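Risk register update: the risk of archive-format incompatibility is retired. Evidence:
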Amino acid sequence: MTMANERQVPVQTLHLFPILDKMLIELLNSLSEDQWNLPTIARKWTVKDIVAHLVDGNLRSLSTSRDRFFIQQELSFQSYSDLVFYLNQLNHEWTDAAKRLSPSILINLLEVFGKQYVDHLQSLHPFEKAIYMQSHGPVRMFRRIGFILRENTLNDSYTSNRFVIQ
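Archived output:
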């Protein structure tokens, strides 16, 4: 083992994804139509928007990492705020389009592509370079998996905290 690898001991988190997904699916299946449209602590997003964002993350990640599909476009950011604007625009475009989808379809998409995404992540080596993340630069796979778990946990808490308070 090299010195670089000794300093980078991955914390195993991938086994938590199916548990988190199962809990989220159970929660989403219990929601009424009105609850899907409730606001969340993510200021501009409803519960449905957050679920759509999670679906988008699974689909985009599978497209790039597993399928090696990339949109050919020049991206140049002059500042961090340019990057944030771009990412917010991507998120808005997807959540806006997802308003046409029923909650049932979103749950099905989460179930099917969430499992495919976890299966794909399990096939990767933790020290392999992850596919370039536009917002974070190149990283090792175990760091990417940790980021995904953190983001999904935060998004799930945006959804579930709304109902704990009620």
